UniProtKB/TrEMBL annotation:
Its EC number is 1.1.1.239, 1.1.1.62, 1.1.1.n12. Pathway: Lipid metabolism; mitochondrial fatty acid beta-oxidation; Lipid metabolism; fatty acid biosynthesis; Steroid biosynthesis; estrogen biosynthesis. Belongs to the short-chain dehydrogenases/reductases (SDR) family. It is found in: Mitochondrion matrix. It is an enzyme of class 1 (oxidoreductase). This is (3R)-3-hydroxyacyl-CoA dehydrogenase. Gene3D superfamilies: NAD(P)-binding Rossmann-like Domain. It comes from Eleutherodactylus coqui (Puerto Rican coqui).
Amino acid sequence: PARLKSTLALVTGGGSGIGRAVCQRLAQEGASVAVVDLSIDSANDTLRRLARDAPGQDHVALAADVSRSESVRALMEQIQSRFLAPPRVAVNSAGITRDEFLLRLSEEAFDSVLNVNLKGTFLITQAVAQSIVTSGQDGGSIINMGSIVGKVGNLGQGNYAASKAGVEGLTKTAAKELAKFGICCNTILPGFIATPMTEKVPQKVLDKFAGMIPLGRLGRPEDVADVCAFLATEDSKYITGASIEVTGGLFL
Ligand code: NAD
């Protein structure tokens, strides 16, 4: 079903993993997708897949660093001049890890993870909401990637857990403030999803996690993308400020 026909969707981190699967899933629903990534090569790679699988829709690949306000401003200008309309769906999937145990965690590793995961989500959420409000036509869906780690913590991920707990608080506040503009804001809390981000995790640890997951397997990017499609469409119109775990039941 083309539930997102003539909808423009902006997806950060669209060049890899979950973000790429989200781009493909939203395009499948009929959306035009602005694939945003720090790496223009990765974004273009996703764009080629969209052109192959969802031709006839106007997709674009754009480079931006979500952690820098000048870069986010330039990104929004490019989108406005190309589509002459604001994105109605925004998915914040850009994210990084810099794992270190707390006793050794450097200030630099703390700041860089908070800057991309939390500040980047803030800058894009604010910019997209501003563009919707300025257009004078209410309505939209902002979907932010938190993590189950933001709720339960994880060894070596103090910076990451803090950033993801922050994303949840930010998103709930955005839900309250932006409801009057018809903009719904929700957080997805993925569990353990097999992507380039989790590729570095040793097989022993992967097996351990898989054994702890009631549904009996690690997640796939498509598992998250399906929930994202739901949150992007009218099917979820009465849901805002929610945090939806997509974990296969991990840490219930
Ligand atoms: P990934 O590493 O495959 O993809 C992340 C993408 O973000 C990359 O293409 C990268 O270039 C881009 N990116 C990094 N910094 C950026 C910046 N400053 N500006 C713009 N783009 C930037 O990771 P993934 O596994 O697909 O994760 C996507 C999101 O889901 C992240 O926010 C991650 O924290 C979250 N998440 C992932 C898992 C998991 O198990 N994979 C679990 C919970 C949450």
